[in-house]
Structures are given as structure tokens and as C-alpha cells.
Amino acid sequence: MTAQLIDGKALASKIRTKLKQIVSKSDSAPGLAVILVGNDPASEVYVGHKERACKEVGITSTIHRLPENTSETDLEELIETLNYDDHVHGILVQVPLPQHIDTKLILETIPPLKDVDGFHPYNVGRLAARNP
Known about the structure:
Number of strands: 3
Order of helices and strands: HEHEHEHH
Low-confidence stretches: none
Distance between the termini: 26 Å
Number of helices: 5
Oligomer: single chain
Helix content: 40-55%
Shape: globular
Strand order of the largest sheet: 2-1-3
Strand content: 5-15%
Largest sheet: 3 strands, parallel
């Protein structure tokens, strides 16, 4: 089997066009909540890309920018609030988190069905088992 060159930009554009069509036919726009703790420049860029991509296809995105010194408890409480928000269909906690926050604990606070990155142990296990 020979290698196949993939045009990532063209493929992404095709996927976004299809997503835009799907979202436009939906009764309500899907909602993404992004949580960014601190001022990591690379994380800012990544989150900005997600925000633009959501806007392009009609997904509602809300970015929760929290200071570097946010407590683990405050972060957990925000995630719990988002877990029960019917307008939030996906939650993305941008990592890395500050050192004083237990990343594993925070990622486990997101319910598997709202885990955009697939980092919850349940989702990782299903991926490892090749079970969608």
C-alpha cells in the first residue's frame, strides 16, 4: 500500500461545509463551552481557532477565561454548572492546567457525553477498545 497525500485544509473545509448544513437544519444550535485557565499563549491560539470554527458552522461557543489562580473547587463548580446547562452540549477544558489543579480530577468532572476532547477515562477506554 502506498502512502496517500491528504490535503488537510481542503478536507477541513469539506467537513465544515457539511457540519454547517447539519447545524442549519437543527432546531437549535449546538453549544460548546470552553474553559481556559491562565494565559498560556498556545492555549489562547488553540481556543481562538475553536471559536472561529464554531462560528463558521453555526455552533454557539462560550469561552470561560479564568485567572491562573482559580481554585480547583471553583473550576469544578463551573464544570458542574455547565454539566446541567441544556444549552451546553460539549465542554472543553483547555490543558495544560496550572500546577495547583489536578487535571485528572477536572477531566473526570466532565460527563462522557459532553467530553469534547474524549479525555474522560470512560471515553479513553472505549477508544482503546475500538468501541465508538
